[in-house]
Amino acid sequence: MENLPNCPQCNSEYVYSDGTALICPECNHEFQAEDVAEKVYKDANGNVLVDGDTVIVIQDLKVKGASSSIKKGTKVKNIRLVEPEDGVHDISCKIPGFGAMMLKTSIVKKG
Q1: Does 43 reside within a domain?
Q2: Same structural domain for residues 33 and 66?
Q3: Which of 9, 75, 102, 103 is at a distance of 20 to 30 A from 85, taking alpha carbons?
């Protein structure tokens, strides 16, 4: 059985091929397999990031509701890369002393 990508419009897994295009039976969206490219996440220096990487914060970050900020040089282990809901923050992680946070790839470097 072919390993076809999910529909980029509705994320349905029931996509089928008609020979020239891929079709989603749930939303009737037609697309090419090349249109569904894997997103590449890069840090501030252009290094490719993957789930589980350790990164270092490259600037001080103010945190709403916290009495202190995340200092430049803070090491964050075991990051998880996510599709940003707000269009900006694409790293989900836990920062010691702060808990669960969302960060931008542009403010970290691979550690």
Answers
A1: no
A2: no
A3: 75
